[in-house]
Amino acid sequence: MTNAPVYDATKQRITELVQGRDPQTPVAATPGWSVKDVVAHLAGGLRDFVDRRFDGVESGEWGERQVRDRRANSLDDAFAEWDANRELAEPLFDTPMGSVLISEVVQHEHDLRAALGVPGDRDGVAVRAALTKPLQQLDQRMRENDVPALRISLEHGDRVLGHGEPAGTLRTTSFELMRAIGGRRSVDQIKALDWDGDPDIWISSLALFGRHRPEPFEE
C-alpha cells in the first residue's frame, strides 16, 4: 500500500495550518527555525530524498543546510518548491523510503501545530503511520545492542521491541511515543510516562536521533 495519500493529506493540513500566519513565528520544537524554515526544510528535504543526498543527517547539518540555503526565500517560494518536489518524489512512496517521508512530514506537522497553538490530528492514521519506520529502527537497534526487550502498549495494540521476553512495559499513546522518540520530549518527561520496569534501561535506546530534548517541551 502506497504512503502517498497519507503524505498528501498531511501536506494539505500543513498548508491550511500556516496560511495567513506569520511565517517568522518561532517553532520551539525545532530551535532556531521559523514556520517558513520548517516548510523550507520539508521542501528541500524531499528533494534530497529524490537525489539520495543524506550527508549530515546524523549531525543535524542535513536539515540546517536546507534551511540555510533558503533563508532568502518566501513562504510562497517554499510551498512552490514543495509542490514541485512532491511530483518528483512520486516513485518513492511505494518504496521503503515512503514510510520515512511519512515520519518526517507528520512530526513536523505537530511541530508547527505546537508553534501556532493549534493542536489536533493526534489520534488518526497519520500518527500511527509515522511510527512505522522509527519502531523498526528502534527494534533493530535494541537487538544489535542486546538491550532487554520492551513491550510498548498503545491505544491500538501492543508492540514488542527487541529480542526475547519483554523485561518491561511502556504504556502511552501513539502521539506521545512519536514525540518522545523523535526528540520532542526530555528524559524526565519520558521517565514520567506509565512504565512497568526501570525506564533507565531503555531511555537511551528510545532516542531515535541519538539524543532527547535537553529541556521539557509541553504542547
Automatic annotation (TrEMBL):
Pfam families: MDMPI_N. InterPro entries: DinB/YfiT-like, Maleyloyr_isom, MDMPI_metal-binding. Residues 15-87 form the Mycothiol-dependent maleylpyruvate isomerase metal-binding domain. NCBIfam families: maleylpyruvate isomerase family mycothiol-dependent enzyme. This is Mycothiol-dependent maleylpyruvate isomerase metal-binding domain-containing protein.
